[in-house]
Amino acid sequence: MIILGVILLVIGFLTGISILWTIGIILLILGAVLWILGAMGHAVAGRTDVPAQKSRAPRRRTAQSPAQGLTS
Length: 72
Fold this sequence. Notes:
The chain is mainly alpha-helical. It has a domain of about 45 residues. Helix content is about 55%, strand content about 0%. It is elongated, with a radius of gyration of 26 Å.
């Protein structure tokens, strides 16, 4: 996000397109804030550096039909 902000800032500055300049500033600031929060150890949008352990859902047991329960 920071890199995209810098790219848009440069393109907006060189071409004179003010909307690119504005979006570049917003992305640059937002990316920096998220980077700082992540470096401080805060979970941002539910994400952390430590990968979550996969939960193993128990297998569903299917009901047996009467024919399956009988052996001949």
